[in-house]
Design goal:
Structural class: alpha/beta
Strand content: 5-15%
Strand order of the largest sheet: 12-11-10-13-14-15-16-17
CATH topology of the largest domain: 2-enoyl-CoA Hydratase, Chain A, domain 1
Number of strands: 19
CATH class of the largest domain: Alpha Beta
Number of domains: 3
Radius of gyration: 28 Å
CATH superfamily of the largest domain: 2-enoyl-CoA Hydratase, Chain A, domain 1
Largest sheet: 8 strands, mixed
Bound molecules: 3-hydroxybutanoyl-coenzyme A, 1,4-dihydronicotinamide adenine dinucleotide
Distance between the termini: 47 Å
CATH architecture of the largest domain: Alpha-Beta Complex
Oligomer: single chain
Number of helices: 28
């Protein structure tokens, strides 16, 4: 028996325990161990029933994702699952934690299932570009009906154990010791004379609804909601097969569709995104056991757009938070905005009134710095002016207790300069939230020159507590996300000046999968904000770094984007639908040949990538996949493309470089190829292969 699967026989029961930390993924050792255990139980006359449990924090959370794309190793999961279902002795699986994907498929192949009340049960394969490939698409509709199967398989979202019970996916809820619960259930089975009951042979649920109509409606939904995605339509095809074919043939069809997904580039990109997100939590050079500071109370300085959103983040996870504003009036406005935000969630039904009351009770306001003496962390979100930041940080330095973490939400200013306003720069860190801060999951954690390891580790832990995806970045203008965005935005405006229309530029990028086109985004955030950033940058630029003038012209004409009803597009009163803006068209060249979709994509995406390579080389990002995480979670980059750096690797760095060089010749200095891009392209390597050591060592690497 493999180390990952334990097997003992006790009083007529075979007790099988999977023990493969951290999440009992069904890697090769688990699959072969399970197969062996079932064969042993089958062959042992002393065994009358089988109990399957998992050690540690969870039931099997799925196939081992790391194995996808590698040569398959026997036994495959479908073989194991079939063997369990075919066994002539009744089996019971005891679920806890997250029984997901292949883990749930193993459970479904057992003849009975019981689960802890708080267990989560699901088939999340679609989220990594796959579909359940070990019978999930055939057995779930047979047990729970087509509607529930489509809901679970196409969304990938888990359901709670009570819901699973209501839909016939499990037989009972249990509590206490898992194995004992399984033993008790198995004994009852034997006492009642209940034998094997194969999920694959159940048919009642399949006859429950109008399956053809359900399938058609789901196809239409997927077509509009996620037109670019490869696996969701195949998930539906597989469920449809369950309604049309006997189990054995349905399983063959499922396997074919699974294989198509496995070979799709989207699968590789989505799995890259899965691991990239987990990798981002690891900070090079920071020991995993670095102590962190206790955070029980927080404060936010500035109750504007960002400050209120940040305060809500704390209240949402149960951390008391004080909001400090300049005067009573500004404070009232800020607190009212917080109340309004919660009230609209209650109205939409995403928050209960009790939930709102609980959260608001954690939020208090003040205009006095002395009230912040005991807080553990402060996040400053005042105007983006160094002078104002100075006043705030000097005050904080005076009043905050030793050991308090002093954070800034600045998006462009020098964090090291801000840290120097205090006598404790080691306690200063950047926490760059994205707007709306209570909704967006990305958090850039800015490591200043003097930020201590403890403060950095505490900031990462805080990000996790706030349910954010935190990525460590170094200090530079715009950090990672906005620094790259500057190039992307600049190029998209250059394209307009060369003859493209806004809808062509945005259409090309939306067709690529971006949540919004760059020009529509600019209209949403306000052209004056973009212009302010650009104007701050202009004096620092050498003459060969010219910037397009469209923003200046639009702002001068009072067209600031959605808030004024016009910008790159025109908007009817109360509408967010972009319409052509005739006033903009007058500013654009007439009769020029518009660039093709391919040219638009190359210009905008390669501008992102070239800047990303510079950021990587400078050690501003620890690794290429961190840049991907930032773009996937903060900038609407499509997950099925894996992020800009992964996309570049897929295109091939030599191809990207050839274009960057061509643009450099034709369009000038902004397109100076990143030395790292040149180096890796020459070596035939990828950004992903350029794994870093310590951030600071990166500088010497290329
Ligand atoms: N395979 C391999 N490694 C996995 C894994 C899996 N299925 N699931 C999680 N891990 C690893 C993570 O990479 C991470 O490793 P690290 O510590 O080295 O970074 C570790 O387990 C812990 O994971 P999380 O940090 O995500 O822990 P959480 O407690 O936050 O979440 C979880 C646990 C809910 C299980 C989450 O990890 C998850 O959603 N995992 C993926 C589940 C999934 O997609 N299953 C389906 C797989 S495909 C399949 O089964 C195909 C089949 O139908 C044939
Ligand atoms: P805002 O203008 O909406 O809010 C700033 C608030 O700070 C105002 O309510 C103002 O009264 C208050 N304030 C000013 N001086 C103060 C002081 N000395 N003490 C206490 N309060 C003071 O600005 P916004 O957009 O919320 O930005 C705040 C910070 O967050 C800036 O540094 C900005 O660069 C950054 N940021 C903004 C993002 C955005 O999308 N708006 C995104 C990420 C970061």
């Amino acid at each position: 028996m493999s180390m990952a699967v334990r097997y003992v026989v006790q009083d007529e029961l075979a007790l099988i325990t999977v023990d493969n930390p951290p999440v009992n993924a069904l890697g090769h050792a688990v699959r072969s161990g399970l197969l062996q255990a079932i064969s042993d139980a089958e062959g042992d006359p002393a065994v009358r029933a089988i109990v399957l449990t998992c050690a540690g924090r969870t039931f099997m959370a799925g196939a081992d994702i790391k194995e996808f794309g590698l040569p398959p190793q026997e036994p495959s999961l479908p073989v194991v699952v079939q063997r369990i279902e075919d066994c002539s002795k009744p089996s019971v699986a005891v679920l806890h934690g997250t029984a997901l994907g292949g883990g749930l498929e193993v459970a479904l192949s057992c003849h009975y299932r019981i689960a802890r009340q708080d267990a989560q049960i699901g088939l999340p394969e679609v989220k990594i570009g796959l579909l359940p490939g070990a019978g999930g698409t055939q057995r779930v509709p047979r047990l729970a009906g087509v509607a529930k199967a489509l809901e679970m398989i196409v969304s990938g979202a888990p359901i709670g154990a009570p819901d699973a019970l209501a839909h016939g996916l499990i037989d009972e809820l249990c509590e206490g010791d898992l194995q004992q619960a399984g033993i008790n259930f198995a004994r009852r089975l034997l006492k009642d004379g209940r034998g094997v009951r194969r999920s694959g042979e159940q048919t009642a649920a399949l006859a429950q609804g109008d399956n053809a109509a359900l399938i058609q409606a789901k196809r239409a939904e997927v077509h509009t909601r996620s037109p670019g995605l490869f696996s969701p339509p195949r998930c539906i095809d597989a469920v449809e097969a369950a309604t049309q074919l006997p189990l054995a043939q349905g399983l063959v069809r499922e396997r074919e569709l699974f294989q198509q997904c496995l070979e799709s580039p989207q699968r590789a990109a989505l799995i890259h995104a899965f691991f990239a997100e987990r990798q981002a939590a690891k900070v090079n050079g920071l020991a995993a056991d670095t102590p962190t500071r206790n955070i029980e109370q927080a404060a936010v300085i500035g109750g504007g757009t960002m400050g209120v959103g940040i305060a809500l983040c704390f209240a949402n996870v149960g951390i008391p938070v004080k909001l400090l504003e300049v005067d009573g009036q500004a404070l009232d406005r800020a607190l009212q905005r917080a109340r309004d935000t919660y009230a609209s969630s209650v109205k939409r039904g995403s928050l209960s009134q009790a939930g709102m009351d609980q959260r608001l009770a954690l939020l208090s306001g003040t205009t006095q710095y002395s009230d912040l003496a005991q807080v553990d962390v402060v996040i400053e979100a005042v105007f983006e002016e160094l002078g104002v930041k100075r006043q705030v940080f000097e005050q904080l330095d005076k009043v905050c207790k030793p050991g308090a973490i002093l954070a800034s939400n600045t998006s462009t200013l020098d964090l090291n300069a801000i840290a120097a306003f205090t006598g404790r720069p080691e306690d200063v860190v950047g926490l760059h939230f994205f707007s709306p801060a209570n909704v967006m999951r990305l958090l850039e954690v800015v490591r200043g020159q003097q930020t201590s390891d403890t403060v950095l580790a505490s900031a990462m832990a805080l990000g996790k507590r706030l349910k954010k995806i935190s990525v460590v970045v170094g200090v530079c203008d715009g950090f990672v996300g906005n620094r790259m965005l500057f190039q992307y935005g600049r190029e998209s405006e250059c394209l307009l000046e060369e003859g493209a229309r806004p809808e062509q530029v945005d259409g090309a990028l939306q067709g690529f999968g971006m949540a919004m086109g760059p020009l529509a985004v600019r209209d949403l955030s306000g052209l004056d904000i973009g212009l302010a950033i650009r104007n701050r940058k202009r004096p620092t630029l050498a003459p060969e770094y010219a910037l397009p003038n469209l923003l200046d012209q639009l702002c001068a004409a009072g067209m600031l984007g959605q808030k004024t009803g016009a910008g790159f597009y025109r908007y009817e009163a109360g509408s967010r639908t972009p319409l052509p803006n005739p006033a903009l068209l007058e500013l654009l060249p007439q009769g020029a040949t518009a660039p093709s979709t391919e040219q638009i994509l190359e210009r905008t995406l390669y501008a992102l990538i070239n800047e990303g390579a510079k950021i990587l080389q400078e050690g501003i990002a620890q690794r290429a996949s961190d840049i991907d995480v930032i773009y996937l979670n903060g900038y609407g980059f499509p997950a099925f493309r894996g992020g800009p750096m992964f996309y570049a690797d897929q295109v091939g760095l030599a191809t990207v470089l050839a274009k960057v060089r061509e643009f450099h010749q034709r369009l000038g200095a902004w397109w100076q190829p990143a030395p790292l891009l040149e180096q890796l392209a020459a070596q035939g390597r990828t950004f992903s292969e350029w794994e870093t050591g310590d951030m600071n060592n990166n500088k010497d690497k290329p």
